[in-house]
Design a protein that fits this description.
Elements: H1 2-9, E1 21-31, E2 40-49, H2 53-59, E3 74-79, E4 89-92, E5 102-105, H3 108-142
Antiparallel strand pairs: 1-2, 2-3, 4-5
Helix pairs in contact: 1-3
Length: 143
């Protein structure tokens, strides 16, 4: 969801027909170990959407055969910080007739920290992968 949220932050999509976020609840997820012996932690955040006024507004239209596309009742994001209680803004990223997708905007600090975590993880994976390939290559040439 990081590219979707990044596009929303820079103004892609639309703010029309977007349900409001009514609540944000985050829970910690610990994994692995760090140098200091404390596990690494991310936050799994659930955004509850206030969809009640959204379909009600569309149901008052005078077109009898209109199909109202209902959206999700919650969104999920994995974040580096606890954002419980902070209500972000949403932008609709999908076009008409396509499944609904929303970009979540908390602010630049949150987005920069998520991209930093992604870059650090990618760098570590490349480093370990490169080390494994070098080890295999050296072992192959010694045979």
């Amino acid at each position: 969801m990081l590219p979707l949220d990044t596009r929303a932050y820079f103004g892609a999509g639309t703010a029309e027909s977007v349900p409001p976020v009514s609540a944000v609840n985050c829970s910690a997820r610990a994994y692995g170990t760090s140098v200091r012996g404390k596990p690494s932690r991310t936050w799994q955040c659930y955004l509850t959407l206030g969809n009640v006024p959204f379909p009600r507004r569309h149901s008052t239209l005078s077109i009898p055969d209109i199909h109202v596309q209902s959206g999700p009742s919650f969104l999920e994001r994995e974040l580096p910080f606890d954002r419980s209680g902070e209500l972000p803004t949403l932008r609709r990223m999908s076009g008409d007739g396509k499944p609904l997708e929303y970009g979540v905007i908390w602010g630049g600090r949150e987005l920069a920290s998520r991209w930093s975590m992604w870059a650090l993880t990618a760098l570590l994976m490349c480093a370990f992968g490169g080390a494994a390939i070098c080890t295999a290559r050296v072992a192959w040439h010694r045979r």
